[in-house]
Amino acid sequence: MKSILVTGGTGYIGSHTVLQLLDANFEVIILDNFSNSSDESLKRVEKLTGKQAKLYEGDIRDSDLLNTIFTSHKIDGVIHFAGLKAVGESVEKPLMYYENNVYGTLNLCKAMAEHGVKNIVFSSSATVYGDPVVLPLNENLPTGTPTNPYGQSKLMVELMLKDLYKADSEWNIVLLRYFNPAGAHPSGLIGEDPNGIPNNLMPFITQVATGKREFLSVFGDDYDTPDGTGVRDYIHVDDLANGHLKALNKLSDKAGLVTYNLGTGQGYSVLEMVTNFEKASGQKVPYKITPRRSGDVAACYADPKLAAEELGWTANKGLKEMCEDSWRWQSTNPNGYK
Ligand code: NAD
Ligand code: WQD
């Protein structure tokens, strides 16, 4: 693997992955429609690495553009981040989510097949497990029923890729099921830049800490967890990004179709997140307990053993680094990339 097409490469996880790919001397081609990002993240990645990626502004649903990209570059593999990810929005606009995430991936795979590029790493999500029946979650457990169209779209793509592999075993497919990404590059130059009111916990906490939001709503304190608040497996975005480089090695080994959790194996509650963030940042995070958010599960964390055994990947950074790095990014870029 030398030359990698990264769809969604200017987004949150994509930008951190592109940085590591450039550092490791891959040739990187990015396709992004900037629906949730801009080229500013790439400018900063290029500054940090001293290397350049080729950027195409456009959509994975655009077959002509895909054709141009695959004709213009000898691509060895694709890391496919592009997609929409806001759970609430997906409930309001399901067709938009199925079109972007499912049809978009289908269109990408068609172009890949036409050009004989049959290596792909796909951004899946722990959401495909549905409401966990046992914890920690391992990859052999059956998938469940995601509670929203976003989650369904991830499960549909997993199923589609499995069928694709069954029909043509020349494909090498790594499904990476991310748990809860958090943190930012330690430089403070790149990080998560959500549009409007953040849906996810960590960006909400950092915006409360800067004073941009008055308080954090803690969605429910009556779950069956040690302190009653929701428990999740937060993973540093740099560790997550590194998982993709390991997945590329797996593609080179002719993996077939394989599925890995990318998580730490350790769950933290919402209140533990608040306390740890306060400690790492020195800022107060006022909060109020509010009713549960619909569709939330009590607890969700990974069994990360398989990725350790088969990819040689483990998460190295802990909650302290996630909190410190998120704070450095948010406090030095209060308006994100704008
Ligand atoms: P992000 O929104 O920051 O990045 C996605 C990128 O894809 C953005 O730059 C966006 O502009 C681009 N994009 C969206 N639709 C596109 C299209 N049709 N054509 C071209 N580009 C398009 O999100 P992220 O957090 O970096 O997530 C990356 C991937 O990982 C997504 O597929 C997401 O569903 C998945 N994922 C994210 C999380 C999370 O909590 N962040 C968890 C599990 C899985
Ligand atoms: C974490 C915990 C909330 C915000 C979602 C998607 C999942 C994946 C990651 C993409 C929960 C609580 C949150 C707030 C809170 N995305 N919370 N107040 O729900 O585990 O996962 O993002 O694939 O598919 O569902 O992450 O960060 O939204 O919530 O109390 O303002 O924080 O209830 O317990 P979640 P999250």
Describe this structure in words.
One of its GO terms (molecular function) is UDP-glucose 4-epimerase activity. Its cofactor is NAD(+). Pathway: Carbohydrate metabolism; galactose metabolism. There is one protein chain. The protein has eleven helices and 14 strands. With 338 residues, it is an alpha/beta fold. Helix 5 runs parallel beside helix 6.
Could you give the topology of this structure?
Elements: E1 3-7, H1 12-23, E2 27-32, H2 40-49, E3 54-57, H3 63-72, E4 77-80, H4 87-92, H5 94-114, E5 119-125, H6 149-167, E6 172-178, E7 180-182, H7 201-209, E8 216-219, E9 231-232, E10 234-236, H8 237-252, E11 257-262, E12 268-269, H9 270-281, E13 287-290, E14 299-300, H10 305-311, H11 319-332
Helix pairs in contact: 1-2, 1-8, 3-5, 5-6, 7-9, 7-11, 9-11
The structure holds nicotinamide-adenine-dinucleotide and UDP-4-deoxy-4-formamido-beta-L-arabinopyranose (WQD).
UDP-4-deoxy-4-formamido-beta-L-arabinopyranose is lined by residues 85, 87, 125, 127, 151, 180, 199-201, 204, 216-219, 230, 232, 270, 293, 296.
Domain NAD(P)-binding: 5-325
Cofactor: NAD(+)
EC number: 5.1.3.2
Write a concise synopsis of the structure shown.
This protein is an alpha/beta fold. The chain has 11 helices and 14 strands. Helix content is 40%, strand content 17%.
